[in-house]
Design a protein that fits this description.
Elements lengths: L58 E5 L6 E5 L1 H56 L1
Antiparallel strand pairs: 1-2
């Protein structure tokens, strides 16, 4: 009995490809200088204005009688706008609910009739297919 042998071909040299390393242009910028929060003018120089004016916040304070509490309350314009928006949204919701309930009660008999007709046709079609 003869032992089988495998003939292996010789190895060929494969050239490798040289890929250059990627380069990129890094952006540069002039750094922004932020003054410190405790910056003061040098001694002997007057600053232009040292008074700070408070911006109106739109909130009033109301004293509650017989207590020591102050309650913040928005200005009248804000209260009127918020109240009007609330009234309109509640009215729209109630109207839409009533309209939807009416549509459901009106469409229910129509949909029931339609479903009966469709299911009746399907039953007839299945019966016709079974007979042939």
């Amino acid at each position: 009995m003869e032992i089988p042998s495998i003939i292996i071909p010789s190895v060929e040299n494969i050239e490798t490809i040289s890929i250059p390393l990627p380069t990129a242009n890094v952006p540069s910028y002039v750094p922004l200088v932020v003054p410190p929060s405790d910056l003061e003018p040098p001694p002997g120089i007057k600053s232009e204005s040292t008074e700070t004016e408070e911006a109106p916040t739109g909130i009033r304070r109301i004293d509650i009688p017989f207590t020591d509490y102050d309650v913040p309350v928005p200005e009248n314009e804000i209260l009127i706008t918020a109240g009007g928006t609330a009234v309109v949204s509640v009215a729209a919701t109630l109207t839409a609910t009533a309209a939807f309930k009416w549509a459901v009660t009106a469409m229910k008999p129509i949909l029931k009739t339609l479903i009966k007709k469709i299911s009746g046709r399907k039953g007839k079609e299945e019966g016709d297919n079974g007979e042939t």
